[in-house]
Amino acid sequence: MTYSPELLKGTLKTIILKLLADNKKMYGYEITQKVKELTRDKIQITEGALYPTLHALETDRLVTTQTEYIGKRVRKYYSLSVAGKAKTKEKLNEITEFINTMIFLLDIKSKMA
Amino acid sequence: MYSISDENIDYILHDLKIRGIETESLRLNLLDHICILIEENLEENGDFEKFYAFTIRAFYDHELREIEEEILLSSSYKNKRIMKKAMILSGAFSAAGFIGGSLSKIMLFRITDFLLFLGFVSFVLLFLPLVFIVLLKELKSKSDLIIYSSGTLSLMLYFFCMLMKCLGLPSSNLQLGPNTWLILWLAGLGIGSFVFVPSYFLAGMSKPETKTSTIITSILLVAFIGVQFRLTNLGPIRQAKQNTATRTHTFAEKTYHQASFHAE
Questions:
Q1: What confidence tens digit (pLDDT) does each residue in B136-182 have?
Q2: Angle at B61 between CA B55 and CA B66, to 5 degrees
């Protein structure tokens, strides 16, 4: 089962920031594969969602970039900036609280029990 | 495993451009992404073009341009937010200048002119241009452009002349020539009454939901401009006209005398 893009939309920035916090530098394709691998194909980040999000993070100066030439191709590596590291913590706290609230709101604990 | 050639790369880059990917960093990111997918999934002797067409289709719902549009949307939204913040800040600064200037005038402080000057300058040179730029970004029709530009220009001229008058700066001090401020003042009122108010009125009346508010605002604007015009001292212009008439009269009289002298 894969999750719907609507459900993922609000969490994509947090996912990417956390991945970059755990891995020193990553490029676009690598991020999609890592997410697939970690979630056992449950979350599949589309290219249409990934690149605009990376661009937004770059504009907000939360990530820095490095380019590497592979023949005629250019590979762009993303890594967290100092502001990005602080933002990652903030986003993780926010999502943890959100998940707890949702568990409480949807009464998921009692249903699971 | 397929090995991507330079021709393949040129083909992909060209196709991405045709499909509307203008942002270079996005184009290069997509190129690398597609190349990896092709290298990992296409057999050594596979059909590159066919596989490329199949791969790229998975990137979008309707058109590949959607990705570019998403990026542009987020960038322009951010710019707009910054502009709005700057507009509010300059407006607040200007208001503080006006309020401070007015209070110090009541208290007879010497700083009055300086505070009013700051208020006027930030209003005319920062706040109004920023309002115009923010409104331009929300432009819906050509008539909106006329309304926004004529309104901004009219207000800028009005407040600029008001500043000169309040500070008692004679036009000659600014080396703009005689009566310049009066001409600018009248130009401001003229643009306001003959361009801004009619275009605002026509645009507002064309929408049923804004009819009443448009009528009320237009009447208030006409009344305001009328009062401002009534308060305008047209003396310098009349004086200039009178001087020209006198000069013409004297010249005619002189010519007549000279002509009659020769006739004698």
A1: 877 777 888 899 999 999 999 988 888 777 776 655 444 445 577 78
A2: 100
